[in-house]
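Record passed on underneath.
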Amino acid sequence: MFPFWSEYALPDLPDYPAICEALRLVGDLARQYDHRLTFHPGPYVVLGTPRDDVATKSIIELDHHSRVFDLMGFEPSHWNKINIHVRGVYDSKIKAMDRFCERFHRLSDGCRKRLTVENDDTPNAYSVDDLLYLHDKINIPIVFDIHHARFCRGTMTSEEAFHAAIKTWPPGIRPIVHYSESQEGRKPLAHSDYVEGPIAFYGCEDQVDCHIECKAKDKALLRYRDVAQLSWQQSLYPGQPGIGPGAPHDVTSS
């Protein structure tokens, strides 16, 4: 959205008034259509780094993200989350997470109220049970990534990690989970264009919001929604003609 974001302040941009107006309109549209907007800053935002210069730029960039939500008219809360990873293990996980906590307290109040942390996708990185250490220290919610948990399990099953993560969210805020699948013929960690599912919510379908991460973006979401709806209809009316895989997408039941 804003290249080299850590190198300047938004009010210093020559078209700042127009930026503010555009962001206000974005917020108005999101509220009008009940859309939940979130941020996922890139891999160079690292609060657990041993390098103070990297940490300082990370803090600046996170605070800028939070300021954008302010300009959209959103009150600071995890409803509009700013989601990051701990990233590197460096000297040790505990030391990296302790640095994360120290830098967390240097963020603006609004940013702290929006920040969440996500489990990683490499075996020796941060699983949900690692991230519970952060939650205990600074009360930060955990975003559970179902796909990542295949590769970085920790000591929990996927179901145990799912429930442990959603319990870290504050009352009144729907937890968010991430779902993706591997791209066939590529590295297992690479996201696919579409998802086939089914997505396992472990009995919490009506308690969480799910972000589907795939290359086809909105097209993937719409296709999965159609498939899930047809599957649901088929389970209600087994054997009924016109319902189930291969049926037209506008099928309804009465």
Q: What stands out?
A: Residues 52-71 form the longest helix (20 residues). Confidence is low (pLDDT under 50) at residues 241-254.
